[in-house]
Amino acid sequence: MAKLMKRKTKTLIVIFIISVILSLKFPSEIEEEERAKREKLEKEEKTFSVFLQRESATSTRERVVSLADELHGLEYDFYRQNCPQAESIVRSTMARIYMQQNDISFGLLRLLFHDCFIKGCDASVFLDDSNGNKNRSIERQAAPNKTLRGINEIDMIKEELDNACPGVVSCADSLALATRDAVVLAGGPFYPVFTGRRDSTQSYFDEAMDEIPKPNDNITRTLFLFSRRGFDERETVNLLGTYCAHNVGKISCDFIRNRLTNFSGTGQPDASVDHDFLNELRLACQDSNSTNHDGTVASMTSREMRNSSSAMIFQGSSASIPSGARFDNHYYQNLLGGRGLLFADQQLMADENTARFVAVYASDDGTTFRRDFSRSMVKMSNLGVLTGTLGQVRNKCSFPTSQS
Description:
Radius of gyration: 26 Å
Number of strands: 4
GO molecular function: heme binding; lactoperoxidase activity; metal ion binding; peroxidase activity
CATH architecture of the domain at 219-286 and 310-380: Orthogonal Bundle
CATH class of the domain at 219-286 and 310-380: Mainly Alpha
EC number: 1.11.1.7
Binding site for Ca(2+) 1: 115, 120, 122, 124, 139
Keywords: Calcium, Disulfide bond, Glycoprotein, Heme, Hydrogen peroxide, Iron, Metal-binding, Oxidoreductase, Peroxidase, Secreted, Signal
């Protein structure tokens, strides 16, 4: 009897030990569980952010538009079933690209802007639909698009996506996701990107020539072009803070020469240009060493425009943002001081409403600008998207699927 009780006790002890062991989690399991928790929290945070933005109303001159009405069939995590790794592929590939080109963020922002501003975010700016017809001009050839950067990088990301999920992720979504990730890498704010965009089957040369804001546009023209796409004065000032402050690329002296010597046929410089800044620009455009082989000068960053001792950068044959360029509000501080590089920049101070928002963005540490930028980019990246059966998913971003 005693032996039987002893045997049962040992059995119970063994069962207890096994149950304890089974209840333990190995380090890899703990890490996986923690990762899953973090992802869940991040997703909930993003969803909550989206909810807040959907609830906010955006005023325009003619109507009030709810951001929820701007989604046009896009979804959060659209590829969760047919390509669940899509967003992580974009993120990791973008990180590798950023390590090689830390100014690519601003190039992609400009590329996204030019794409979305013309017929919506449909990757039409990539497309060569000329079918070899030299008389057919494509969107990429329009004057405002000739200096766009980032097309090759999106092709690289698209190739990685198609290696994992052939023919699933569109070029339009690739650009939208890559731009957001590049913004975050450059120190900019996170904003949610809805996916499910499809690609246009045609490009729009004439529209790009006419409807993309130009460096010499006055404030009336700039506000008109943005309002046609549902942006009010505050959103316009906010978006120009990144589009103009960092994204301009190479600036031809031809764009600013009339501001320096013969503004509007007066024979005098633009009176809105700060005197010291005017001298810096004159020296830059007179110095033969300051021009590239195509007659352009490298752009200055918003931070550099504040420093008279290093206002312009003329190294090499291409314009690049120096290491350390970040998302900040120096663009607006420059405008307050009359140091807007382009006429269209400084024109933000010519209208009472836009000047008020310039002052708002210049007045703090950049928090207000960054917060509004997130909201504006959600709206920008959802403009005129093609979803469902509209458009196509291109295999090669430069060609319609039928030609790939």
